[in-house]
Design a protein that fits this description.
The chain has 195 residues and is mainly alpha-helical. Helices cover 79% and strands 0% of the residues. It contains eight helices and no strands. Helix 3 runs antiparallel to helix 4 and helix 6 crosses helix 8. The mean pLDDT is 88.
Length: 195
């Protein structure tokens, strides 16, 4: 949203990196299991038990299908898909599965209010700082500095990633996104990188 990029496009762009990270995690798990002798029980679950577990998990598994299917299918915007998922979850948990109590709903609303208020504080502060940086024309200066280092995107992108990693150790991810996106977006556009 900060860069004006479609959320659906971002989801699609995340498929290959997500599969790559999943593969890396599987390889690491395999190596650690071999090294430390983790074998588990050594028995596979019977097909009947897998089927029962899948049937029990199906209502929860429908949430990502509803969200991603709605976005990818062009039926909903990300916000609309989120609302549909929340309503679906309330109906499933409250009316069909009957695992949702009034106290749980109150706790969810309280947690949501606390999270939202803390996010709004970060957004307000980061937006103000971002506006100050834009006022002093920092994005143009940053483009000039980085392009003076190199105009090769394969050199500058790792530099930007290291900078983002460094900034991520000091600031919240949302603040980084709100402050650094307006600064770095012109740089990647000059390099010809698709946002």
């Amino acid at each position: 949203t900060t860069a004006g990029v479609s959320v659906g496009d971002l989801f699609i762009a995340g498929i290959i990196p997500g599969l790559f990270i999943g593969l890396c995690l599987m390889i690491c798990s395999y190596i650690l299991a071999k090294k430390y002798g983790f074998t588990g029980t050594g028995k596979r679950a019977p097909v009947k038990e897998v089927a029962i577990t899948f049937k029990d998990a199906l209502p929860a598994l429908m949430v990502p299908i509803i969200v991603l299917g709605g976005i990818y299918g062009g039926l909903t915007t990300p916000t609309e898909a989120g609302v549909i998922a929340v309503v679906y979850s309330l109906i499933m948990e409250g009316l069909i599965l009957r695992t949702l109590s009034v106290q749980k709903v109150v706790d969810v609303f309280r947690g949501t209010a606390l999270t939202t208020s803390s996010i709004f504080l970060v957004v307000a502060t980061a937006t103000a700082l971002g506006q100050i940086l834009l006022f002093y024309n920092l994005p143009t200066q940053l483009v000039d500095i980085l392009v003076s280092i190199s105009d090769n995107k394969y050199i500058l992108l790792p530099i930007i990633l290291i900078f983002l990693l460094f900034m991520g150790t000091f600031m919240d991810a949302l603040a980084n996104i709100l402050i650094l996106t307006p600064l770095l977006l012109p740089v990647v556009k000059v390099l010809g990188v698709d946002p």
